[in-house]
Amino acid sequence: MKIVIAGGSGFIGQKLTNFLIEKGHEIVILTRTAQKPLQNVTYVKWLSEGSSPEKEISHADVFINFAGVSINKGRWDKKHQKQIYESRMRATKELIRIIRELDERPGVLINASAIGIYPASNQAVYTENSDEIADDFLGRTVHDWEKQAKQAEAAGLRAVFLRFGVVLGVEGGALPLMVLPYKLFAGGTVGTGEQWVSWVHVDDVIRVILFAIENQQIHGPVNVTAPAPVRMADFGKTIGSVLHRPHWLPVPSFAMKCVLGEKSALVLEGQHVVPEILRREGFQFTFPVLRQALEDLLL
0.85 exceeded by the pTM? Predict the structure, then answer.
């Protein structure tokens, strides 16, 4: 297939590109800066003055959208929140415009999303049928992002919104920061420890993306989380056990709020999310259990 990726330079985007190339697919990466083409990879400028990517893209089968300012970098002040929100809205709106301008439109848009759309809860269990939306910055951002991407359906595409949980990998995401205290023999429970961590190994994320592309009956929201979420306290204890480090020094909630501000909700609050659609469609996780995933990544 010919697959167009927006946001292909990020943590997941880079691993996805390499994976798809190994599978024999042709990749087009939308980028703000000109780059020399590589084998099976073409770079097309977009979101910059004078760029007309629709004139350089033809016969694309799939569009994938990961574009947007990272939620993991920087403190969530009003300026950064505005950048997170507006970067996603602008990129997705531009993708829809490009698709509509193409003489031959792709069959599917795979759009990144997040389980942050669900309200934080220590009791609720969320599936794709859950219609509660978190009344906070992340919940509103994800809701509006999916709404913008859903316009692809009016252009005749199948639209899939991959609601990522906490993606575990060594090259990026949250895991390196979560592991660091344990490597320094200072690991312990963050906050109450009762909050849920709905995690997923990055290799399973990559496989889910291709699974969603190839299975045409999949559309709308898809929870991309391993089938066995854990409480934060258990998450930390498992890191300690895998690394043979103590789990003893708690990090109180007020300390996290002082350091991270509103962004502290990412670690102090959580959601128990299950991948109901992936389970129904027969997707097999390579890493369904946390210890197995951490051993693969950390040892």
Answer: yes
